[in-house]
Description:
The complex is a heterodimer of chains A (235) and B (247).
Chain A: H1 8-17, E1 20-21, E2 29-30, H2 33-68, H3 72-84, H4 87-98, H5 102-126, H6 130-138, H7 143-173, H8 186-190, H9 192-225, H10 228-234
Antiparallel strand pairs in A: 1-2
Chain B: H1 3-14, H2 16-22, H3 38-44, H4 49-79, H5 84-96, H6 99-110, H7 114-138, H8 142-150, H9 155-185, E1 202-203, E2 206-207, H10 210-238
Antiparallel strand pairs in B: 1-2
Helix pairs in contact in B: 4-7, 4-9, 5-7, 6-7, 7-9, 8-9, 9-10
Amino acid sequence: xxxxxxxxxxxxxxxxxxxxxxxxxxxxxxxxxxxxxxxxxxxxxxxxxxxxxxxxxxxxxxxxxxxxxxxxxxxxxxxxxxxxxxxxxxxxxxxxxxxxxxxxxxxxxxxxxxxxxxxxxxxxxxxxxxxxxxxxxxxxxxxxxxxxxxxxxxxxxxxxxxxxxxxxxxxxxxxxxxxxxxxxxxxxxxxxxxxxxxxxxxxxxxxxxxxxxxxxxxxxxxxxxxxxxxxxxxx
Amino acid sequence: xxxxxxxxxxxxxxxxxxxxxxxxxxxxxxxxxxxxxxxxxxxxxxxxxxxxxxxxxxxxxxxxxxxxxxxxxxxxxxxxxxxxxxxxxxxxxxxxxxxxxxxxxxxxxxxxxxxxxxxxxxxxxxxxxxxxxxxxxxxxxxxxxxxxxxxxxxxxxxxxxxxxxxxxxxxxxxxxxxxxxxxxxxxxxxxxxxxxxxxxxxxxxxxxxxxxxxxxxxxxxxxxxxxxxxxxxxxxxxxxxxxxxxx
Lengths: 235, 247
């Protein structure tokens, strides 16, 4: 196995911005800003799709279970078991059993995001002060309105915490999506025959930056979504 | 005319496996058409011994190192409050970097192999252990600390004899999350040639077949469950006062 010289960080940065002659493919220019941008967008596409599926499945389920106060064992147990699922096995099994492509990989990635969203939504709703719920009921709110106007807003910080964890685990696992035929920044990392050592490091840098950007944006979104009343209490 | 050549090549790639199947020693084939081939599993279960052991070693090393660092940081930040926000931010950044990217970012520095794997996985555990330890120490009621001080305990005695024992549930809760996720993430160290159970899911540049992936994943999840139960039991044994429920 080749050992990487420390200097290749510079090479990797160069790779991101200007196409370079690969030391592997013999003369073909690889990488560059356009290719990097394309893969960043592809990476975001599969991440967003999978996260959307996870939210659509887990958020209503968590709200319902939390509101009814039922299924604690299911919600929390599923969440804990979800952490133990090896990402590589999910991608590998989907690829060899069901097939490759965005249609199979996005739902597979969503599985990894469901657990954190479900647990956090459930816990967030359960933590809502029962007095607030009783007051809403006394004002004549329907159960659905209580969930939408009382429980969900009060649970926003916890729910968003779950969505942030889900986004990070999905974005991280999208790096190995190329194993299942979906293009992502993982191409730079896994296709060493094409992109060489600079590409590998460039891919790692871009994935790390993308993860921090997404995490930062979701943190900002969380602050926007959290009602001012809650902010005062936590400050 | 190319077909004999192709067959020969396939024979070489498939190796003993195809030969055995042709001679009838393997009743079912462990390829993509089978979800799970019990016969193959029975014949080949031995091959999971070494990867399981490697996996276990990597996880234990990472968690022990991660715990030592995070625990020390938490004790430091507990006494020096100003250090809490920057430490939380720093461990948070480490936790945000996807593990695969993290592995390759370290390649120019530490190269392929187990060292890189352990550094990354240990860095991953810092956030959750640090945060839970701080939280556990902060949750100790002031009245308890006042009582301890009134009995003449020094600050150090209060920390080790009062605060830390009372923080055990939170500390172990953090440790459980850290261990379980480390066991799962450690499958990815196959990408930096550090071995482990990931080698039975993805090896020599290819995904393996369903039977092998399922066996390896099952071992990973069983390992996670076992560690979770051990830690849960340890927590119950270490906090006997929690078992007495107030009437």
